[in-house]
Amino acid sequence: MFYLLNRPRAEAEALAEAIIAVKDRVRLCSRCFSLTEEDPCAICTDVRRDAGLLCVVAEAKDIFSLERTSAFRGRYYVLGGLMSPMDGVGPAQLRVKELIARIGEDAPREVIIATNPNAEGEVTALYLSKLIAPLGISVTRLAYGLPIGGDLDYADEITLAKSLEGRRSL
Length: 170
Prior knowledge:
Blueprint: H1 2-5, H2 9-25, E1 27-28, E2 35-36, H3 42-45, E3 50-57, H4 60-69, E4 74-78, H5 96-106, E5 110-113, H6 119-132, E6 138-141, H7 157-165
Parallel strand pairs: 3-4, 3-5, 5-6
Antiparallel strand pairs: 1-2
């Protein structure tokens, strides 16, 4: 705020106009519910992406985090939040029905559930896996573990236990 107060009025007005322009142009993709200026979004229309991989995330911002890695070349689906019984958020408040419809239309070979490793993310992942698995589709979850460059001394017990469970061969 103090930065803006010290800038010329024209800069503040330009910033305000840019914010309004973003609010006017950005909307949700009708296929994946990510943020976009074009519908459907660039990821949904990219024929180079693997349509057999569908990554389910809680919020659109999660897509941007995953895309920064350049490690995932499939498609996405945004739930619009996570289940939180304590806050009254259940499947009806999320885009679960639309997800099942999308899976029925696209018939991916794998659905990757990429929710945060907290109580809400775990509840949501478990619920979704129980819905999707009977459809004969592989359901996977992002791995848990130690961050690159992290020290075992500073890791909590749950992270260490999950790291041991998710170990892989070298």
